[in-house]
Amino acid sequence: MEQQVVVFQLGSESYGIDIARVQEIKAMSPITAVPRAADFIEGVINLRGQITPVVNLHTRFGMEKAPVTKDTRIIVVNMEGDWVGLIVDSVSEVIRIAEDTVETPSELVASVDADFIRGIAKVSEERLVILLDLDRMLRATRDLAVGAAA
Amino acid sequence: MLEFDLSPEEADVFLQEAEELLLQLNEGLVQLESAGDAPELVQQIFRAAHTLKGSGGVIGHKRMAEVLHSMETLMDRVRHGQMAVTPELIDVLLQGADAVRLLVGEVSSREDCGLDTAPLLAELKSLVDGAASRPEAAKEKPPLEPGPELAAEVEAALAGGQRLLEVRAEVDASSIAPGARILQVLLAVQECGRLLASEPKLEDLNDEWDGRAVQALLLADEAAPLQSLLGSISEVTYQVIPRQVGQAGPQPDNSVPTAPAAGSDDGLAASGGGTPESAAQPESPKAQAGGSGSPRSAEAGRGRADANQVRWVRTSVERLDALMNLVSELVTDRNRLMQVRANLTQRYGEENGLGELSEALAHFSSITDQLQDEVMRARMVPIENTFSKFPRVVRDLARQLNKQINLVIEGQETELDRTVIEEIGDPLMHLVRNCVDHGIEAPEERLRAGKPERGTLRLAARSEENHIIILVEDDGAGIDPERMRETAVRKGLLDADAARQLSDAEAIELIFRPGFSTAKVVSGVSGRGVGMDVVRTNIERLNGSVSVHTKVGEGTRFELKLPLTLAIFPALMVEVFDSVYAIPLSAVEEAMHIRAEDIRTVRGRETIISRGKVLPILCLDEFFAYAGAERGATRYVVEVRWGETTVGLAVHRLLGRQEVVIKPLGRMIGEVPGISGGTIMGDGRVALIMDVPSLVKVARQERRSA
What we know:
A: 150 residues; CATH 2.40.50.180; six-stranded mixed sheet; 2 helices; B: 706 residues; Four Helix Bundle (Hemerythrin (Met), subunit A); Helix Hairpins
């Protein structure tokens, strides 16, 4: 079993998400801030007529906020029929990952909560890609956001 | 899983028809109760029950047909004067209608609703049996028989192709000269044939005659001329029944269709389905519609003829919603094009062919507006559907509480967007219940207060510019501000000091506080203290408002102000720092320029004086927690109103008016205080739409706590 994942950078780590869930990858564009929303909600953008919330994954995962560069991207993913934008440092490539290279995560490997990690793919001797459990991560993010808005 | 004999498409038609007929049944029963004796209403109810029974039978819904059959039998007794209309009778029939509604529901759910119809059927039957043994049964007049001396003549005439007909006619109760009308009927009979016998007899009639019924037996070549002649007599309801010699009762015969008298909806009583026995065989709706002389087709052919002149297309709500969404996109694009034009004009001036672009855009813009109007209109439905359930509700509640209430409904033709209609049912229901329960006093109390025993509840709708106003008004006890203060203190909502400081208007506004209920006894109707706050919340969610006006001893009026549509509305665009916000224009009272020194601090709150009144200010840069927000940086104040409260929203710039299309921010964001959604501006960016009710609430709370 092989799967295709979109690989993006967050700080010094590489993450992968299932390509089937990715709607599009956008360059940074003006984001309308939503005051008093959760801190990791960067704001909303207009995506072909639909207002789409944008989550800053740095803030979400408690990492230091990275400056916006020419490489910064918004990955728009599908969540239960809604679009959600995720701000990442850069998107590097789309790779194929064989299921037998995926290992169960150890607690210490990433900045991200182990609950949100589906596995670690060893792409080469030097390179690990952390596969995100997108649904779990987004649901938890939503619950957090809805609770935090005040 | 229940099985019925119909396809899903047929089920839709069935359910729609059933809903319509149930509504007629309910309305008819409630009206009949107050009218007491109204043959045309009785007929309408009978017909509705009969038709419903027919459709129930066709799809094999036996239980539904059974209940309706019993109801129909009972109505038949009423129709023939064997039973008086009493509240008890109406109660049972309304219960029957409720049962039928549940049973109809089975057709869509395909699940047994768990209703045991046996007690209801028994109750209906006992009423029917009771009616049969009553002396009023004598009111049903036996058919006239020709005297023996005429037997030979009748026999000869029948042999010669003539027909024996019986005319039964009744003069409307409102007629001032029933005797004269009866005379007209008998003269008409004489003109069309050989009058054999009549009751009353022609020679007994005089101007003082006060009977209202007349029967006549005649020989004639055909019935039609007689019918048209009878039809020309006003205030008279009649039947022409073909007879056989020596036959015990009238024989329904569809070959002699009857026609209504002028101004009456009746006249069909003896045509199809007159007796319970003949009606027991369910007819298919189709057969009814196509059949001759059945009540349904007669009505369709007559009453609906005018309506059929308009040509209708049935369309699904989804399609209208899709159309509305497309129009919304168009409005957004229009705004965007306007922005592009403005940018180009700024760069190149009006020359260089831009004038032509402006012209085209102006036209495009006006077409878009018209399209938006048309689509909005297509989505509008009369509020009638919502109002029509209230006569029944008010009647039931009033009876339960031993109150006498006259419900006046006005403006039911007023139209609203269907999404708004769907949302206002519950709030309206609560207001109406509240008026019946708390507003209108018991009859004794009303008499003591020198008011008529019967209270009046008015439910009225009207349109006003871009809004719909709905009033729920009673002539009851009114709301006493002093009692509101006491209750608020007792319930711990306010301390005694705070309560004393409230103005009367503010005290009355307490009714919308969560957990507030002034009912002395929890009545099970509306006294649980959940409600008025929910009413306000629901109406506010629709961009509407609810206000209350009351006078002790004279009554209370709730006024609902609702937008025509939810999707697109005019807004005032403002800027807070570099962010653009839209404030719904419906909430805006005034916008003004201020200087830093205009802002004064009163009891720790920033305020300005506007039109001689102290207006609390909410500085949006601070409220929305912009970094670097500084006092005095704001330059404009937009005065917004919610309910009875006005608040000034301090912003940095005013950008002008724009039509905005509201869009949700997405589930990821959650509920943000002060923001109700977003809209896409001409430049493609997102502007947030301010949630005025929540901002006013915040400003009010901050004022209290300050």
